[in-house]
Write a structure and sequence with these properties.
The complex is a heterodimer of chains A (105) and B (544).
Chain A: E1 3-6, E2 9-12, H1 27-37, H2 44-60, H3 66-73, H4 77-83, H5 87-96
Helix pairs in contact in A: 1-5, 2-5
Chain B: H1 7-11, H2 40-45, H3 67-81, H4 83-91, H5 103-108, H6 115-130, H7 132-137, H8 148-158, H9 166-170, H10 177-189, H11 196-208, H12 216-234, E1 249-252, H13 263-281, E2 285-287, H14 303-320, E3 324-327, H15 332-344, E4 371-373, H16 374-383, E5 399-401, H17 405-411, H18 415-424, H19 455-461, H20 463-476, E6 480-483, H21 486-499, E7 504-507, H22 508-515
Parallel strand pairs in B: 1-2, 1-3, 3-4, 5-6, 6-7
The chains are: A mainly alpha (105), B mainly alpha (544).
C-alpha cells in the first residue's frame, strides 16, 4: 500500500487515500486530508463532524449512516458537502480516520 | 479515481470490433473500468488462498509460482463437479444471439463484453488443455494456451459481468453465462484474485452477520433511529423486536436497507407495515442482528463462500424457533435462496411451509425454501383487503418499475411488485417491453461491482436501463424509479443523476409505508423522507 509523508509523520493509505487504521489517526492526518481535500480552513463545524464520526465509530466499529450524522450534528447533508466537498464518506470519514463502508451501499 | 467521461463520450463509442482478431488484441486495464484488488486482511479472515497485496495496474500480480497448475487443477475439478460448466464449455455454437443483449457491450462497445466472447476467454483455454480437438488443431479450433495475459484478461472481464443473466434469456442453447462467470471468478479466487468490494463485505458478513460489519448494538441503534423518525412523521412509535425467540416469522433484509439512503426509507416502510399488522392482526415477527444480511457476496466469490454465508439465515431461524422466513427487498439473496439454497444448506426441515397468519394463504411456491418475498406477502394482504391504504399520499409520484435482475430472472417475481405498486400509487408507467420483466436491463453495478472506483464501467453498463427510464420520463413525466434490490437502491441514484437527473429512486415498501394508515396516526404532512406532501402541508391543518 502507498505511503505518504507529511509534517514528520508517515501514513499508509489505500487506493482512495483512506488511512490504513483508525489507530494511526492523529492531528497531522487531519492536516494532510485538509490539504488533499482543498479545505481552506478548519472550522468548529468541521471539528464537530469529525468528533461525532469518531465517537460513533469508537462505540460501534462503523461509520454512522448519513442521516444519523446529520441529526446528531444538526447539519443538513448539503451543509456537510459544503464543509467536505467530497462528501460525508470520502471527505469527512477520511479525515476522521474511519474506513470506507462496503456492501450494498 | 479516474475522471468520469461525459455522457456524449459514452454515447459516441463505436461498436465496430478492432481489426486484429480477439486473441491478438492485447488487454488494456484502464482505471474507471475495474475495482481495487482485495484487501489481504479480508481474504485471510475467511481463510481463502493467497492473501497478499497486489495491484491490477502493475505487471507483477505476485502470483504463486505454480499458478497455472492451480488454475488447471481448479478447472479439472469443476468440470467434474459442475455438469453445467462442462456443458456450457462444449455446446456454444457462437451464433452471437447474446452479443448485443449485454448492457456492458452496449455501453462500452468492447467486443470482449459480448457474453459469447467473455465465455470464450475461458473456453479457449478449456479447448487447448481439456479437449483432444483443441490439443491437435490449436488456434484453428479456437484454442489458446494459458498465459499471464490470458489470466489478466479473465480477471478484467469476469469483473465486468454482473451475472445478470439477460444474455441467457436469448441463448438458443440455454447457456447461462452467469454460471461461467461464477466458475471463472471461483478459479481466480484460487489465486487470491478477488476485488475488495466483494472480499471485505464477505469478511464482514462472516464476522458480524452483515456486509457492512454492523454489530448487534449498532443494528439496534439504527432500527431505533428509524422508529423515532416514524414517530415524528406519523405520531406512532413502532416497537419492533430483535432476536426474539419463539416468534412465528423471522424477517431478513439487506444491511444496506438499515444504512444507506434511500434504502433506509424502505426499512422504515417495513417497520410501518409490521407495526400495522401487529396492532391490527397480531403479526408475530422478529428481526435479527445476526441474520442481518439478505445479500450474499459469497455468491460472487465461490460456491463454498456462498454456502457459508447463506447458512446463517437458516441457523438463526432454527435458533429462534420461527416457523418461516420473510425476506425483504434484496436482489441476489433471492437467486441464492431460489436456485442454490435447497441443495446447499437445505432442506430447511426445521421450518414449516409458510402460511400467512393473516389471510391463511399457503405459499406453495416457497414450500421448499420456506422463505417468502415481501411483495408476495404484501400482494396477498392487498388482495384480501387487509391493509388500510391511502394512495393519495403518493399522488405526486409518477412511477416506473425496474425489475431487479435476480428476483425477475432468478425467481420469476414479475407481477407481485407491480400489483403492490399499483395498489399504493395511481400513476404507474411501464418501460418498453424489451427492457422489463425477464428481459430487464441490469443496473450495471450488480455482482459486487458497485464500488466507487469503477464508476465509468457502472455508468456505461447502466446506459440501457437509464435510456429506458429516460423514455418514460420524457413520454409520461415519470419521476420515480421503483426497484426491489438494495444494490439497485444504492447504484441507481448516481446512474439517474448522470443520465436522467429528474428521476429519483425508491424501494416499494417505502411507497407502502407512505400510503399505509397506522391506527392512531396524526395527519401525515410529510413523506418518509420528511419532505412535504404536496397539498397536505401543515398550514392546511386549520380544520382539524
Amino acid at each position: 500500500m502507498p505511503q505518504v509523508e507529511f509534517m514528520g509523520k508517515t501514513f499508509t493509505i489505500d487506493e482512495d487515500g483512506f488511512i490504513d487504521s483508525f489507530e494511526n489517526w492523529c492531528e497531522e492526518w487531519v492536516q494532510w486530508v485538509k490539504k488533499e481535500e482543498g479545505i481552506d480552513e478548519l472550522s468548529d463545524e468541521h471539528k464537530k463532524v469529525i468528533e461525532v464520526l469518531q465517537d460513533y465509530y469508537k462505540k460501534n466499529g462503523i461509520a454512522p449512516m448519513v442521516r444519523v450524522l446529520s441529526k446528531v450534528t444538526g447539519f443538513k447533508l448539503k451543509h456537510i458537502y459544503e464543509l467536505f466537498p467530497s462528501g460525508p464518506g470520502k471527505g469527512a470519514c477520511k479525515m476522521a480516520g474511519l474506513p470506507k463502508p462496503t456492501g450494498c451501499v | 479515481m479516474s475522471d468520469t467521461p461525459k455522457p456524449e463520450e459514452i454515447l459516441s463509442r463505436s461498436h465496430t470490433p478492432p481489426k486484429t482478431g480477439w486473441m491478438d488484441t492485447p488487454i488494456n486495464i484502464r482505471p474507471g473500468m475495474y475495482c481495487y484488488a482485495s484487501n489481504p486482511k479480508s481474504v485471510d479472515y475467511v481463510g481463502l488462498p493467497y492473501p497478499r497485496q497486489w495491484n491490477p495496474m502493475e505487471d507483477d500480480w505476485n502470483l504463486p509460482e505454480n499458478w497455472k497448475e492451480i488454475i488447471f487443477e481448479g478447472m479439472r475439478d469443476r468440470l467434474d463437479r459442475f455438469r453445467s460448466f462442462k456443458v456450457f464449455m462444449d455446446i456454444c455454437v457462437r451464433c452471437g444471439a447474446c452479443a448485443d443483449k449485454c448492457h456492458f457491450f452496449i455501453g462500452t462497445g468492447d467486443p470482449k463484453n459480448m457474453p459469447v466472447l467473455r465465455a470464450e476467454l475461458i473456453r479457449s483455454v478449456y479447448r487447448n488443455d481439456f479437449t483432444r480437438f483443441g490439443k491437435i488443431f490449436g488456434k484453428m479450433a479456437g484454442a489458446r494456451p494459458m498465459t499471464l495475459d490470458v489470466l489478466k484478461e479473465w480477471w478484467y472481464y469476469l469483473f465486468q459481468c454482473t451475472e445478470c443473466r439477460r444474455c441467457s434469456v436469448f441463448c438458443p442453447y440455454g447457456i447461462d453465462t452467469a454460471e461461467i462467470t461464477i466458475i471463472g471468478r471461483e478459479l481466480l479466487n484460487l489465486l487470491g484474485l478477488n476485488i475488495d468490494w466483494i472480499a471485505t463485505p464477505v469478511a464482514n458478513c462472516y464476522r458480524t452477520g452483515n456486509h457492512l460489519g454492523i454489530q448487534p448494538h449498532a443494528y439496534k441503534d439504527m432500527i431505533d433511529f428509524f422508529c423515532e423518525d416514524i414517530e415524528e412523521i406519523t405520531g406512532v412509535l413502532p416497537k419492533p423486536s430483535l432476536n426474539r425467540k419463539g416468534a412465528e416469522i423471522l424477517f431478513i433484509t439487506p444491511s444496506g436497507d438499515v444504512f444507506a439512503d434511500p434504502g433506509t426509507y424502505t426499512a422504515m416502510g417495513y417497520l410501518i407495515l409490521f407495526d400495522f399488522l401487529e396492532k391490527k392482526y397480531g403479526l408475530d415477527i422478529t428481526w435479527s442482528t445476526y441474520a442481518s444480511e439478505g445479500g450474499n457476496f459469497g455468491f460472487f466469490t465461490s460456491h463454498e463462500t456462498m454456502k457459508r454465508l447463506n447458512a446463517k439465515m437458516y441457523a438463526e431461524a432454527k435458533r429462534l424457533g420461527v416457523k418461516w422466513i420473510l425476506g425483504g427487498e434484496c436482489g441476489h439473496m433471492w437467486r441464492v435462496i431460489n436456485q442454490y439454497m435447497d441443495t446447499m444448506n437445505g432442506p430447511a426441515d426445521h421450518l414449516e411451509v409458510p402460511v400467512s397468519p393473516i389471510t391463511g394463504t399457503r405459499f406453495e411456491n416457497a414450500a421448499s425454501t420456506r422463505m417468502v418475498h415481501i411483495t408476495e406477502f404484501l400482494s396477498d394482504l392487498i388482495y384480501h383487503d387487509k391493509l388500510d391504504l391511502d394512495p393519495s399520499r403518493n399522488d405526486h409520484l409518477k412511477v416506473t418499475f425496474h425489475d431487479s435482475c435476480n428476483p425477475a430472472r432468478g425467481m420469476g417475481l414479475l407481477d407481485e411488485p407491480r400489483y403492490v405498486i399499483q395498489s399504493v400509487c395511481k400513476n404507474f408507467y411501464e418501460m418498453p417491453s424489451n427492457t422489463i420483466r425477464e428481459q430487464t436491463f441490469c443496473c450495471g453495478s450488480g455482482a459486487g461491482l458497485n464500488a466507487g472506483e469503477d464508476m465509468e464501467l457502472r455508468l456505461s453498463g447502466g446506459l440501457p436501463r437509464a435510456n429506458a427510464v429516460r423514455h418514460v420520463h420524457e413520454k409520461h413525466g415519470v419521476n420515480m424509479l421503483a426497484c426491489i434490490c438494495a444494490i439497485d437502491r444504492a447504484v441507481l441514484p448516481p446512474l439517474m443523476e448522470y443520465w436522467v437527473p429528474e428521476v429519483d429512486v425508491t424501494g416499494i415498501c417505502e411507497m407502502v409505508g407512505n400510503a399505509l394508515n397506522l391506527p392512531g396516526q396524526k395527519k401525515r404532512t410529510t413523506d418518509l423522507r420528511s419532505e412535504d406532501l404536496p397539498g397536505m402541508e401543515e398550514e392546511e391543518d386549520a380544520d382539524e
